[in-house]
Amino acid sequence: MTNTTQYLKKIGIEAKKASHLMAKASTQQKNDALSILIQLLNSKAKALLKANEKDVQEAKKNKMDHAFIDRLIITSKSIDSMIKGIQDIIDLKDPVGEIMHLNMRPSGIQVGQMRVALGVIGMIYESRPNVTIDAASLAIKSGNAIILRGGSESISSNIALRNLIHEALKKAGLSIQAVQVIDSADRSIVNGMIKLNDYIDVIIPRGGKSLNKMISDQATVPVIKHLDGNCHVFIDKDADLNKSLKIIENSKTQRLGTCNTAESLLISRDIAANFLPKIIKMLHQHKVEIRGCKKTLQLIKGINAASEDDFYTEYLDAIISCKIVDNTDDAIRHINQYSSHHTDTIVTENYDCAMRFLKEVDSSSVMVNASTRFADGFEYGLGAEIGISTNKLHARGPVGLEGLTSLKYIVLGNGHIRK
Amino acid sequence: MTNTTQYLKKIGIEAKKASHLMAKASTQQKNDALSILIQLLNSKAKALLKANEKDVQEAKKNKMDHAFIDRLIITSKSIDSMIKGIQDIIDLKDPVGEIMHLNMRPSGIQVGQMRVALGVIGMIYESRPNVTIDAASLAIKSGNAIILRGGSESISSNIALRNLIHEALKKAGLSIQAVQVIDSADRSIVNGMIKLNDYIDVIIPRGGKSLNKMISDQATVPVIKHLDGNCHVFIDKDADLNKSLKIIENSKTQRLGTCNTAESLLISRDIAANFLPKIIKMLHQHKVEIRGCKKTLQLIKGINAASEDDFYTEYLDAIISCKIVDNTDDAIRHINQYSSHHTDTIVTENYDCAMRFLKEVDSSSVMVNASTRFADGFEYGLGAEIGISTNKLHARGPVGLEGLTSLKYIVLGNGHIRK
Q1: Confidence band of A385 (pLDDT split at 50, 70, 90)
Q2: What torsion do the CA atoms of A184, A187, A189, A193 make, to the nearest 10 degrees?
């Protein structure tokens, strides 16, 4: 056994043990731990900022770029935002223990389902210390244990946060092993975690494309995948022009770098000549580059051609691909082929087209007359999200507390046997 | 690209295409296909029996054992049972398209969830031709496409069944590619299927332990796992003796070889001296061998000792392990460590013990005062099952139509954008 294997096994055994205790913790205890964590984030902010300062200095020394340091840095404003996040989670209903569908069967037994914690979550993420607090709080409230493996550049911040979390768990009478932070920068640990089937029930990666893809491809532990957000806005022949303009503008330009930003515009050929010049004018005002299909280029002069690859691309930038489609069916076909199955929206006043789009587009969020930017745990009322899943199995779309639980069957009898 | 890779890619592309058509097929069309399949099983039974006869002869020539041939053989009685299964599936509510939890959000959008088909199911099983009909029927009703890879010894039967299924799909106006049967005995196909992430959405293995374990360990496509059924009966200190005897007898002896058969008996030390002799007498009448822990051996003379391994073992035979535990908490601890998380039951008249057992035992089915033999799709009212899942994510326990679907988010707006 290598050192890494031994280290992970030890962490795994402790996490599994803690998960059994967390699974039966009362709502009061779990909320107490979260409330104490809020107090500690307030009272010990100074020490936390100091620990973070160490990471930031190191990152600057290593010439990390501005965006990286921006994500890494903890300010008193970001502490307030962590606290707000924890308070939201306290306010959410405890999902654990809910019993549903308890029906009497002809045999005389009652069969139903009970919502229970998943067990041990393995979270692998990059250098955003706020994720440490978000993920730990969601795990605590959902009755799970969690193993956190953040970016090596935020280790000092994560250790400081872990100390606060452990103090809160201890004061609430819960096991500190319920939240473990891996404080080694050894990259072999990630490879070990994603194959630790005996102790970890689900892996949640939250990072860049290459990290997510590596984990999806190699993990043997089930993964709540978060892959690309190649999101589409489809303007149907019966779309309202003003709604179209508003929804495209918001979906593409409100924020360029988020996974629910639109990356591709589809428009029905019946209205392309009328709508497209106005849409492109609006996008040009926002300095968005349009890459068009052949028909688009025939209609609009002076824009770049889209390659086949463009239609598969999540730009995360001021670029959008554009394709003129025959009709709603053609749009659905295109989306089901090119979309990353994250979020796609139709703009239409036509009931039949709206219903077909809703039913047939195979994505985690499918929308009618709404901006793709709404695909978000808070906007959906989940209160907080640990990620946006592009899985088909288990949780699909924004994953909140419920996505960190599963349903087991329960059977109530009174001495019943099977005939 | 090897021949296998090319072959699987072709099948995968066709299945994916068919899955989009199946996802939007009407309930009427899907039920029509199933009704026609019933007619064909009746009218073409003779040809089917003849095809099966070929497999059976071959198996006899290869000196396969009696149990194997028993599973392989199709009789007019087993055709009736297939037909009954299909009729049950026709009678079930179509799960696809159901919309739930459609709530208005403060932003003005309505957010809900819609139940949709998973896409393409890859089913890998051994030589039970009835599985071909069960799995195809469940896939059709749930709006999925399915790729069936049965045991090589049943190829002739499976081709005959495929021909009937294709005729039924065609007559109902559905794509015959929705149900594909792999008619090659090449074992590399299984290895290819479990890594065919671009085309297969879920793999369901249904076979022996070694097949299931190989697939769980090596698949990169998500697997609905069906691992061991090391099921426990726990007799609590407040158990009723008669209920205990009935439930142990039924759980252990009704059928020895099923996954929901009890393999381990736990009994509270407070009642062991009183109950255990009576329980063991009953088990001996059924010729069940008892392998006991140290305390059991002190109490009962002339029985064999259980090793540590025994407590992990699914015997599928007339053997049961037996352990005297301190109390309910000790029983829960033991089960959470040794159980395969399939089905475990407590016998007790004590409310608190029953509730703790229900909440804290981490298995796909947890029961009170009922035989473990009830863990079954038909007994639970699912109508039919494609397997019993020991996964924690997605479906847990018996998997029926709903387990072959997932929920996507839907958002209804009227030109709404995110602020």
Answers
A1: confident
A2: 130
Tokens at residue A78, please? 């970001």
Helix (H) or strand (E) holding A51: helix A45-61
Residue whose pair of structure tokens reads 């819960």 in the numeric block: A174
Residue pair B384/B377 in contact (Cβ under 8 Å)? The answer is: yes
Do the Cβ atoms of B407 and A396 come within 8 Å? yes
Q: How many CA atoms lie within 13 A of B244 on its CB side?
A: 26
Dist. CA A52–CA A72, nearest whole Å? 8
* Interchain CB distance below 8 Å, A202 and B393: yes
Confidence at residue A114, expressed as pLDDT on a 0 to 100 scale: 97
Is the CB of A373 inside 8 Å of chain B's CB atoms? Answer: yes
Residue B211 buriedness (CB in 10 A; 0-12 / 13-18 / 19+):
middle
* C-alpha–C-alpha distance, residues B187 and B185, integer Å: 6
Residue B383's nearest CA partner among B183, B95, B174, B154 is: B95
Contact B379/A111, CB-based, under 8 Å?
A: yes
Q: Would you state the structure tokens that stand for residue B323, as one six-digit string? A: 């352990």
Tens of pLDDT along A28-39? 999 999 999 999
Residue B30's pLDDT band (boundaries 50, 70, 90)?
Answer: very high
Residue of A nearest to B111 (CA): A380
Lay out the sheet containing B343-347: strands in order across. Answer: A99-104, A110-117, A405-416, B365-370, B343-347, B231-235, B262-268, B319-325, B289-292, B304-305
Other Cβ atoms less than 10 A from the Cβ of A9: the count is 15
DSSP states of B168-194: HHHHTT--GGGEEE-----THHHHHHT
pLDDT digits (tens, 9 = 90+) for A38-71: 999 999 999 999 999 999 999 999 999 988 999 9
Single-letter amino acid, residue A315? Y
For residue A396, which residues of chain B lie inside 8 Å, CB to CB? Answer: 406-409
pLDDT band at A212 (very low <50, low <70, confident <90, very high): confident
Q: Which two tokens mark B57?
A: 């002869």
Lowest mean pLDDT among A149-163, A205-219, B145-159, B168-182: A205-219
Residues of A in contact with B377 (CB under 8 A): none
CB distance A351 to A370 below 8 Å: no
Write phi, then psi, for A415 (nearest 5 degrees). Answer: 95, 20
Give dist(CA B219, CA B207) in Å, integer. Answer: 15
Question: Where are the extended beta strands (E) located within A310-404?
Answer: 319-325, 343-347, 365-370, 387-389, 397-399
CB contact under 8 A, A111 and B246: no
Neighbours of A126 (CB within 10 A): 18
> At residue A220, does pLDDT exceed 90?
no
**Quick one: pLDDT at residue B1?**
64
Report the number of secondary-structure helices (H) and strands (E) in chain A.
Answer: 14, 16
pLDDT at A187: 86
pLDDT band, very low/low/confident/very high, at A1 (cuts 50, 70, 90): low
Determine contact: B394 vs chain A, CB below 8 A: yes
The two structure tokens encoding residue A110: 């009652």
**Cα–Cα nearest to A391, from B409, B145, B271:** B409
Q: How confident is the model at residue B67 (pLDDT cuts 50, 70, 90)?
A: confident
| pLDDT single digits (tens) B226-261 | 878 999 999 999 999 999 999 999 999 999 989 999
Q: Is A254 on the interface with B (CB under 8 A)?
A: yes
Q: How far is the C-alpha of B216 from the C-alpha of B213, rounded, in Å?
A: 5
Read off the pLDDT of residues B339-381 as tens digits, 9 standing for 90 and up.
Answer: 999 999 999 999 999 999 999 999 999 999 999 999 999 899 8
- Of A403, A386, A387, whose CA–CA distance to A133 is shortest? A386
Q: Does B88 touch chain A (CB under 8 A)?
A: no
